[in-house]
Amino acid sequence: MPTVVIYDRLSRLFAEEAPDHRISACKAYAAQRGWEVIHVATDTNVSGATKLEDRPGMREVLAWLPRADYVLAAKLDRYARSVLEFQRLLRAADSTRTTIVTADGVVSPENASIIINVLAAFAEYERDMITSRIQASKDHFRARGNHLGGLAPYGYAVEGPVNNKRWAIDETAAGVVRECAERLINHGASLTGLARDLNARGVLPPAEHARQRDGRKLRGQRWHSTTLRDVLYTPAVRGWLVQAVPGSKRGALTNQPVLDAEGQPVSAGPAILDGATWSAVRAVIDQKAKGRGVERSGKALLLHVARCSECDGPMYRQRREVGGKDYSTYVCRAGVGKQGAHRPNVIVAGPVEAMVTAEYLKRFGRFNLMRWLEPDGSAVLQLSEVTMQIERLAGNLVHLSPDGAAARIAIGQLNALERREAELRAEAEHAEGRWVDAGGTVSDEWNRRDEEEGRRGLLTDLGARVVISPPAPKAPKRFDPSRLSIAFEGPAWWRELDPAEAELAAIALDELE
Question: From the CB of residue 209, how many other CB atoms can be counted at a distance below 10 Å?
């Protein structure tokens, strides 16, 4: 019985546009043809112009291609709206002798090779036209200072008809902005202290305030210092439309005002803060943000591994260097200062990391390292490219002299490509993820990774957990190993064995201790 993989894609997910009816149509089409559905893959909120390998659902399709006779979608534009990406899909399917078809009958097994490229070109043309219209509309409304969609900045509400939406002052939220700005400038307040005070008073943060205003269910979010910083720092508090600086992500620290033809900020509504106040607020925030933009070393070996015994919260590494010597510590933030939820829990970092490292290598250093190989369809894409290279090289070979140097070089390249093709075909046969030997031992890999972040990944893979207890009252201020409880669940590949194999592995692990 011929086999088929069903694929569906949605650019946006709406209730009336759910994929169920299209998938049902595909299943009915497959049943009518007598095909067996072996897998159904979907992509939601994915553009038709997105690369094949960047779509989770399409990666599933590519991984299943070697076992499928057909790939079926409701319509051609569900596959792609880019001729380039569609051609890549066709080549990948051709390398596994799979046929691309649609359930609406436009592309069938009988006419697929003729009609499919023509229709794909029209799909790309349609996408370009839609993109052009949307961009022209945005440019028009942006120049007029209209709200372009989404939530208004904190301190504002959106008012006006559909084609002329503007910002209006939300007095409740705007009052919070003005109060925080005044306390920050004139009373030496800190962002952290202000955020704590707002939470204590029950003032809702931006997203929660918008939900309450719109009558939606609250989610229990709270103010954070970064949230308050973004509210006060953005040019939107001047009533200006904002956009991201080209080449950077959209955010309060990087946004800049939209400018009109004369280079002036485009106004979308009245200002919450005047120019002098806003400039003073930004100056205070910049002065307090000493660490912004500073390169981080990333040397927190036990981040997400070390936990506090009092609250089971994460222990964070605080860096401190005196006279060229490292006096860094691991600290539980829940036990810091007057607002601490439990007694202080601080321990010097160096000895803790050394102790965990020694225990880790003692237990697992001799284990063969394994890595998880996820079938993402990349082998099928590579296979199609290698197959095309083989065909091109074989075609050139017939024009070369059999005894010439060029022919010998071409034959050598052809042999290498054929070996690679065999490897990729074998790789493409695996539709499910699996553990494979990474080569070498855990100890070898540990020594190769000189960055703490890489070593932390090894600790996580082997289920490391370090519980740190606070020091006993009046205990000497020196490192106490008894404060540490180090446990390892074992390697992830070992934890996923069947029960019988896991029991044997556990016995072997006990013998190593």
Answer: 20
CATH number of 3-131: 3.40.50.1390
Separation CA 155–CA 110 (nearest Å) = 61
**Token output for 14:** 């709406």
453, amino acid identity = E
Distance, in Å, from the CA atom of 411 to the CA atom of 402, rounded to the nearest integer, reads 10
Nearest Cα to Cα of residue 230 among 209, 253, 250? 253
The CA-atom distances, in angstroms, between 287 and each of 180, 185, 189, 237 are 17, 12, 13, 20
Per-residue pLDDT band for 296 (boundaries 50, 70, 90) equals very low
| Length reported for the chain | 513
In the block, which residue shows the tokens 């005044």?
Answer: 182
Instruction: Tell me the C-alpha distance between 487 and 511, whole Å.
Output: 16
d(CA 355, CA 351): 6
All CATH 3.90.1750.20 domain ranges of the chain, comma separated, are 156-288
What span, in angstroms and rounded, lies between the C-alpha atoms of 261 and 264?
7
Q: Which residues contact 167 (CB under 8 A, 6 or more apart)?
A: 147, 152, 153, 156, 157, 158, 159, 239, 268, 269, 270
Burial 175-189 (b: 16+ CB within 10 A, else e): ebbeebbeebeeeeb
Give the residue among 278, 318, 313, 376 at the shortest CA–CA distance from 58: 376
Residue 17: pLDDT band (50, 70, 90) is: low
Using only C-alpha atoms, the chain has a radius of gyration, in whole angstroms, of 30
CATH topology for 156-288 is: Hect, E3 ligase catalytic domain fold (3.90.1750)
Cα angle for residues 362, 365, 368 (degrees, 5° grid):
145
Q: Poorest-confidence range of 201-210, 394-403, 411-420, 463-472?
A: 394-403
CA–CA dist 142, 149 (Å, integer): 11
- pTM (2 d.p.): 0.43
Chain region(s) in the chain for CATH 3.40.50.1390: 3-131
Distance in angstroms (rounded) separating the CA atoms of residues 181 and 183: 6
CA 8 from chain centre, in angstroms, equals 22
